[in-house]
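Database export, one record per block. Field names are fixed; values are copied verbatim from the stored entry.
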Amino acid sequence: MALIFLFSCCFFPLLFLALRWALRRPRGLGTDQLPATYVAAKLVSSVQAVMASTAGYIVFSSCQHVLDDQHWLTSAYTQFAVPYFIYDIYAMFLCHWHKYRVKGHEGAGPRSLRTVTGAFLHKELLMVLHHLCMVLVCFPVSVLWRQGKGDFFLGCMLMAELSTPFVCLGKVLILYKRQHTLLHKVNGLLMLVTFFCCRILLFPYMYWAYGRHAGLPLHRVPLALPPTCNLGAALLLAPQLYWFGLICRGAARLFRRARPKDATSAALRNGHGPGGRALD
């Protein structure tokens, strides 16, 4: 298993560097490294998400008994995924660094690194804490505290990554100012649905699955579980609800902006101007 961990430590950074080099090569070595760096980081995140959700589905579908059934892929992919979260913090910081330079702050002097780091932590603190929690808390819990039980639930948690490729594509489209394209709207709808199903409904489903195994109705399951399980679920669910709220707010803004244009287009098609005046 140590070989899997070491392989992952090399795999994600090297994949990121290779993708960034491939994306920058057609345009030459320009000073603006943001697009290539940003897109490469999102591609690596999408690759990891596809692998994680695939591994999660294999584990989830293979475990008939929600507590005792085991699958070798559970512990293997857990160790493979840990270096990704460490790498991703660096990738997020690198993207933020290039954004800072694009905005014209590259002449800020030797203190610029401190300034950018402070701004990065202010903006991405929740995501950084989430990644650190996955490494420092969730990894030891899944490897040591579980003692080989609950592979079914860990498979469910891995399937939460199914929404990540849509989140990444949405951010790339925003970077290239394609917010009003049909692709962005369709991707936004898919992101909304997958995020809600795989990151919000996931927790009631796992409670229901345990209740079915234990012969308990859903509303009695939290009382039958140790308080640490309920606390862990609440801490994992809380940021998902926050991010889902941000996604819903962004979707509402997008379609609110699109509605007046649609109304204007309809008026023009009917032979009237925007103010209701007939066109000559």
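Remark 1: The longest helix spans residues 227-269.
Remark 2: The chain has a mean pLDDT of 85.
End of record.
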